[in-house]
Design a protein that fits this description.
- The protein is an alpha+beta fold.
- The chain has helices spanning 11-20, 59-78, 97-110, 120-126, 148-161, 205-210, 281-294, 340-359, 382-391, 407-415, 423-430, 443-454; strands at 2-7, 27-30, 47-48, 82-83, 87-91, 116-119, 136-140, 144-146, 165-167, 172-177, 183-187, 190-199, 219-229, 240-243, 253-256, 262-265, 269-270, 303-314, 320-323, 330-334, 398-400, 405-406.
- The strands form five sheets. Strands 1, 2, 9, 10, 11, 12, 19 and 20 form an eight-stranded mixed beta sheet that branches.
- Helix 1 runs parallel beside helix 5 (148-161), helix 10 packs across helix 11 (423-430) and helix 10 crosses helix 12 (443-454).
- The mean pLDDT is 96.
Length: 480
């Protein structure tokens, strides 16, 4: 029995969990996958949007701007890499310049600070690799870049440290309400009950909602393909470069990442498969053709990987957050498509305040506000690093050569709160395997460390949980 059950451990669910962890309340998170950040939150642009794109008066606009404002403090408290590099919306057709004015006015009405309209000369002086066809630019200095994995993981770790329980590999199958006002959830791992449920189930949020309400939701999974380029291309543009948006989204962007790569994407393709994260040749070709319209000399031969993610597009194209009319105690956090990452701190704040009022919650005397991330030796001076290695030689044993990730960082990722149990869990926490060779060199060594530290047989080690086993059987003598 819990006070609150949150369904889903993406950025929305974990932001809500962290916010509720400041109160004296029993909270748990149910996640169908083997780790946090396994759904929509794991594959996106990593952009903290300024908030000029969402319609005036929408919840999406309000929470985007509020989340953007909160991000500096949020990133500092949780030790998350975050940079306000600014964004440019590029117009390459003179007859479409009025569209930039519309975006500017919408952004001002939404409360976005510092917006400016730039002419061709000023835009090219700030960003020389913009297309020579540029006619004008909307410049948003408050836009930023962040690591979506670390944001999600950091919120979860901080919530866990403050007492929130997490249950992984736990999929909700049925929900019902009893005469005493309690909610009951049947899962593949037994039954759970709570006074309140928060539905933060991403592309499955409509499935969960429709179990309890006659007022149905409908979410369409919208696939976005991306290309990630090598770090040697990371300075090709300094700002996040957008085309003018369409009804399907913000278009194909080109942006540096907070880790020094260059990212191109996404596409916007509505599909039926809620697990359909496969890339396609047509999708990647589309990215190449579109990105080159707004950024010249784009070094697409330097692509090191491509991937796809899903956005939870609800038919009304707005966030749906609040108590369901015909299901008292059931709180929706649904339709959290872009800019959901940007809005996540504000989503946590909004749902936290809603439950604080309904449940008369009292703040803890000793809430741990800050979380310390995994030590990155590359940020130390040579003297500091030498001393670190002397004290712990595992920091001198480089496992991932592409990203210079040491054995000690991987061990930290395994043993910290909500530690990694899979290759992808290690990758998202440390970046081991995210470099040029894409795990070609380091994955066997990471498996050795997982095997040693957790006593997991090699045949049970997975890429991302479930049936994603790497080794099927031992072909030579010895213990698996």
């Amino acid at each position: 029995m819990h006070d609150v059950i949150i369904i889903g451990a993406g950025v929305s669910g974990c932001a809500i969990a962290r916010e509720l962890s400041r109160y004296d309340v029993d909270v748990c998170v149910l996640e169908k996958c083997s780790d946090v950040c396994e759904g929509t939150s794991k594959a996106n642009s990593g952009i903290i949007h300024a908030g000029f794109d969402a319609p005036n008066g929408s919840l999406m606009a309000k929470l985007n701007v509020r989340g953007n404002e909160m991000m500096d403090t949020f990133a500092s408290d949780l030790d998350i890499p975050f940079k306000r590099n600014g964004a440019m919306v590029v117009c390459i057709h003179k007859d479409m310049l009025e569209g930039l004015n519309t975006l500017y006015e919408r952004g001002v009405a939404n409360g976005v600070k510092g917006l400016r309209l730039l002419g061709k000369e000023e835009a090219l002086s700030m960003e020389p690799n913009l297309s020579d066809d540029v006619e004008g630019v909307l410049y948003a200095p408050t836009s930023g870049i962040i690591c979506p994995f670390i944001l999600n993981i950091a919120m979860a770790e901080n919530a866990f440290t403050n007492g929130v329980e997490f249950y992984f590999n736990t999929e909700v199958e049925h929900i019902w309400h009893d005469a005493e006002g309690l909610w009951h959830l049947r899962t593949n791992n037994g039954e759970y009950s709570a006074r309140y449920i928060v539905n933060a189930a991403g592309v499955y949020a409509d499935v969960i909602h429709n179990m309890v309400s006659s007022e149905k939701l409908h979410i369409t999974p919208r696939r976005g393909d991306y290309c990630l380029l090598d770090k040697e291309t990371g300075n090709h543009v300094l700002h996040t470069i957008f085309p003018q948006p369409t009804n399907l989204g913000k278009g194909v962007l080109v942006s540096p990442t907070v880790h020094g790569n260059l990212i191109v994407g996404p596409t916007a393709i509505d599909i039926k498969d809620r697990e359909g994260t496969n890339t396609t040749a047509a999708g990647i070709d589309f990215l190449s053709s579109r990105a080159n319209l707004h950024v010249k000399n784009l070094p697409l031969r330097k692509v090191i990987t491509s991937f796809a993610g899903l956005r939870a597009h609800e038919d009304r194209h707005d966030f749906i957050i609040g108590e369901v009319n015909d299901a008292p105690g059931f709180i929706d956090c649904a339709g959290i498509a872009s800019p959901g990452l940007s809005a996540s701190p504000a989503i946590g704040e909004m749902v936290g305040n809603l439950l604080k009022e309904k449940m008369h919650l009292i703040e803890k005397n000793h809430w741990i506000q800050q979380r310390k991330g995994i030590l990155n030796p590359n940020e130390l001076s040579l003297e500091e690093r030498n001393e670190l290695i002397q004290n712990n030689p595992a920091y001198g044993n480089i496992v991932c050569r592409c990203e210079s990730i040491s054995e000690a960082e991987i061990i930290d990722a395994i043993h910290r709160p909500l530690g990694a149990r899979t290759l992808d869990g290690i990758k998202r926490r440390t970046r081991a395997g995210m470099g040029r060779c894409q795990s070609g060199f380091c994955s066997p060594r990471v498996m050795e460390i997982l095997h040693r530290e957790l006593c997991i047989p090699y045949t049970k080690i997975t890429k991302s949980g479930g049936s994603s086993n790497i080794v099927q059987e031992r072909t030579k003598g010895g213990n698996a």
